[in-house]
Amino acid sequence: MNFQRRRSREEPEINLIPMIDVLLVILIFLMVTTSYAKYSKLQINLPQASGEPVTTQDKPINVAVDASEHYAINNKGVTYTGIDSLVASLQQAAGDQTDPTIVINADSKAPHQSVINVMEAARRAGYGRITFTTQSKSN
User: Fold this and answer.
1) Closest by alpha carbon to 132, among 45, 63, 46?
2) Cα three-residue angle 116-55-65, rounded to 5 degrees
3) What pTM, to 2 d.p., does this model score?
């Protein structure tokens, strides 16, 4: 005897709505917690000053640095073997001046380290007056 009644047996089904809800919550969580790296351009407005140029009795020492890290002091090429060689060259160019003005003329594509080398050499030589030359942007 067959005591089981003929009922139609229901097939199990997967309910997708809770799964979609969980995935959306995970997606929102990831979007909120992720930090996006944006590389934006820095907009720098340089200060402007008007005034008359200061005349100095001392002769400035012009240090030129090109894009390939070649140095020249007062239009004479200097071989760079280290900061100490720049110190000696600066002291030789200064002569009997106690604190001359160091004018750095660096190419726009010159490595930052080469300009820092000149500044460090001036510091070691005891020269504290350092200035940079720039070129006005042509229209």
Assistant:
1) 63
2) 25
3) 0.57
